[in-house]
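Consider a concrete sample entry:
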Amino acid sequence: MTPTSPDDSPIDIRPIQRHELGKVLLRCLPDGGGIETLFKTQETIGMAAWDRDQCVAQLHCYRLVLPHGLINHWPSWNRPFYFEDVLDGCLGITGSVWCHACCHVGRSINSFSHSDEPDRRYFGHGIGTALCQASIHWAREHDYQAVLTPGTPAGLFEFAVWAGGLPWTTYSKLGFVDAALDMGDDLPEWAKGNSPPEVMESVRAALAAGRPNRDFHSRLMVLRLKDG
């Protein structure tokens, strides 16, 4: 299904190209020459959603070579929770993998000039899912072994918006499998109070409803594109 804008016009989903950078919000990407290096090594920095000529959503992506691969231009503050485990070879995958970092729907240069809040009119139109589908297609076409992504906890919408992610249940519907990393039984740090008020309100409500601590953790979701 083609994603749509708030006025029901079609949203165009495509890989971000170098000449489009002036229209793409770059706040989550590396500084300096890092972006240029990404274009040289992986041809794009991710997927973007376009409402006519305005970029209204981005999914930032990075290439890793496993096992024990490294990429120096993936900002440490933006690396997902599974990063070190993956580099230690826990998945049994050898070769290039395509990794999703943050996914922000409704965040554009225009919206960011007014507020750090995304334009929520773009929520619920299938844009996030379409970005992921485009990324999977890109990975297949470019001979990647797998796609890796953090899936945020199901039912915690405000956390997903703030963290820049999609629920693990969305990825499951796209064919991803939970890597079942052991995250322990403690609450993650973000759920202990150092998060925006709307996020903590959803945490308190979930805890009051009896949600176990381990269900507040994101999950590593894996889509293997090749056998073996």
Remarks:
- The longest strand covers residues 54-66.
- The mean pLDDT is 91.
